[in-house]
Amino acid sequence: MPNIIYVEADGTRHEVEVEEQTTLMEGATMNLVPGVEGMCGGIASCATCHCYIEGEWADKLQPPQPNELAMLDTAKNRRDSSRLGCQILVSWDMEGMEVHLPEEQGSVV
Ligand code: FES
Questions:
Q1: What is the tens place of the pLDDT at every residue in 41-88?
Q2: C-alpha angle 74-68-49 in degrees, rounded to nearest 5
Q3: Does some domain include residue 107?
Q4: Pocket lined around ligand 1, Cβ cut-off 6 Å
Q5: Which terminus has fewer CB within 10 Å in the chain: N or C?
Q6: Is the confidence at residue 109, as pLDDT, over 90?
Q7: CB of 35 within 8 A of CB of 8?
Q8: CATH number of the domain that residue 24 is part of
Q9: How far is the CA of 104 from the centre of ligand 1 (A)?
Q10: For residue 84, which atom of ligand 1 is closest to its CA?
Q11: What is the pLDDT of residue 90?
Q12: Structural domain range at position 28
């Protein structure tokens, strides 16, 4: 299984194995990574899986679809590198990927 490194806002790192074809949100919740709730179950309607994926890692991902972008527009702590973890499927080319987490999850609406 690919290793994914979730990094909390305070810098705490959690390196976990995530099954291919599960989402980054599921990988975090199944491994009890703090700060990722996935309250909507993965249908891009809560932003409690908000994360930042930067640099070359971002280039490996499919760009966000309109439903993801619409939810991100309501997310707290939005950045250019913001993604919803529930919309990203894990694959082997993500081995060692760093997924940074915001200080606070969820939507402002
Ligand atoms: S789990 Fe709700 S938006 Fe991702």
A1: 999 999 999 999 999 999 999 999 999 999 999 999 999 999 999 999
A2: 75
A3: no
A4: 25, 38-40, 42, 44-49, 71, 84, 86
A5: C
A6: no
A7: yes
A8: 3.10.20.30
A9: 14
A10: 4
A11: 98
A12: 3-100
In a domain, residue 106? The reply is no
Quote the CA–CA distance of 88 and 83 in Å, as a whole number. 8
Token pair in block for residue 15: 């390196």
Residue 91 belongs to a domain: yes
CA–CA gap between residue 91 and residue 23 (Å, rounded): 9
Domain count, the chain: 1
Residue 48 lies in a domain: yes
Query: How far apart, in whole angstroms, are the C-alpha atoms of residue 109 and residue 69?
Result: 15
Contact 38, 49 (CB under 8 A): yes
Distance 3 CA to ligand 1 centre (A): 21
Rg (CA), the chain: 12
Residue 93 has pLDDT above 90, yes or no: yes
11 CA to centre of ligand 1 in angstroms:
22
> Among the atoms of ligand 1, which is closest to the Cα of residue 42?
1
